[in-house]
Known about the structure:
By secondary structure, this protein is α+β, with helices and mostly antiparallel strands. The protein has helices spanning 2-15, 41-52, 57-71, 135-146, 151-164, 170-185, 208-220, 223-226, 228-241, 247-252, 279-291, 295-298, 303-323, 334-338, 340-345, 470-482, 488-493, 514-523, and strands at 30-31, 35-38, 81-87, 93-98, 166-167, 204-205, 256-258, 261-265, 268-272, 374-380, 386-392, 450-454, 457-462, 464-465, 497-498, 506-509, 528-531, 537-543, 549-553, 560-563. It has one domain: Glutamine Phosphoribosylpyrophosphate, subunit 1, domain 1, CATH 3.60.20.
Amino acid sequence: MLVGKRIVFFVLTINLVSCKIQDVQEKGLVTSKAMVVSAHPLASQIGADILKRGGNAMDAAVAVQFALAVVYPDAGNIGGGGFLVFRKHDGTPDALDYREKAPAAAHRNMYLDQNGEVIPNLSRKGHLAAGVPGTVDGMVQAHQKYGSLPWRDLVQPAIFLAENGFPLTKKEAVKLNEEQKDFIKYNTRRPAFFLKKRWEEGDTVVLKDLAKTLGLIRDKGRAGFYEGSTAELIEAEMNRGKGIITQADLANYQSVWRKPITGQVGNLKIISMTPPSSGGIALIQLLTIAQKFPLKEWGWNSVKTAHVLVEAERRVYADRARHLGDPDFYQVPVAGLLDTAYIRKRMTDFSLKKATDSDVVSPGTPAPQENPHTTHYSIIDAQGNAVSVTTTLNSNFGSKVFVGGGGFLLNNEMDDFSAKPGAPNSYGLVGEEANAIAPNKRMLSSMTPTILEKDEKLFMVIGAMGGSTIITTVFQIIMNVVVHDFPMQGAVNAGRFHHQWKPDWILSEWGALGPFTGLGMWLKGHKIAPKTGGIGRAAGILVLPDGRLEGGAEPRGDDAAAGF
Length: 564
């Protein structure tokens, strides 16, 4: 039986050679002063226009967020949440946590049946899957602290798109067609604006209800969403669909400014997101491990390089499962997890000759603390301020539930909690007590908005979508630039692979490993699961040696760079 399984994986591995390897030397858009890279060309252009008008990077971030809520509804949102990492032109870092929270009526066993087993899809689809949204409050707080242009000027472009309509891209038309059955099944009031027998590229989408909701946010700020008629619409939707978010939950929601995670790896300073995101800690751990090996000498995606990266990812994701959660509810051992000696100790049982069985890899014991579907956008303004934002509804189109009369989708972020310790979520990730459900708690995330300095100067703004693959996507793109000397666009283009401890296989894009690496990894005992679609979608900006900016826009989507 074991031999049969190995033959299957061998055949799958060999099949990986049939795909054309992406152009890793392609250069992206280069501008001299400012740039925005996002998941949709209309959103990127809106951000660039804000910068041209004299707005700063945070102004552009707010405008892009609301624009994505219109033109990229599968992940852009006002009914979800996210994380924002900021670096002022003088090097001062900051981070905003506008992650969703569990409603006050949530409890740790809310997705279990009478036998204590997880009820399929209850945390993934429908009204009970939604956490209290944080996006609007996050954008308000970001603007209040760092914005320069009037608030209404940043929301108005999105309203214009929603009122007057926008053309569907081919990829967005395909997504809407795939979701029609769920939109009908999980909504108490059918979202006629997204229901159609078949959507085609170029079709115009008009979102009048969403335009009204955005108009309230433009005119009333936070109160336009968390109070008044919008809050009433959300509570009414919850009551019709047996959800548990109340107007009190909305009124009580607050984003949190946090000290970003920072780490030094060689001449690079990494500025990334702190818990409840696992991204910053995991990224620094991965980069620290990788620094120990001669990966440049071994070559990009060679057998040795791929083997080391996979084995590092295996151990880092084991730590993620055990030790990471909402720091307001659980004492995350941040200092211990980032200790260089601890990180390198995690690789003491590593062998260059063979794969490690994930069943024998346990989470480490760091020193105690001393005292599916997401989108990302990156921005640098003319003054050198940088913003890295990852925002999400979680799965594609979140819970599939539109707020009746409000025109916007609600997230399904409750699935990012551990519905039951050790039970996998929709991305196959397992979690333990650190990420158990509790009222008003923020769920653990893989989002990894990141800004890098090189020799104390701004070097890169990077982040990605892709659920559990976000961390490894960002990690591999950084490695592509720093170790293998790819341009920013080439680094984003390059084929990717991913390992997350459990399940114990490598998820690989077709062609990412190639014939020799695929066979070599199989001979070391790795199991490879090919993925026909892409892994992650990234948005990056690289500061070139002469100070110009190169964008890396994701070819796996409709992403675009814009700037001047």
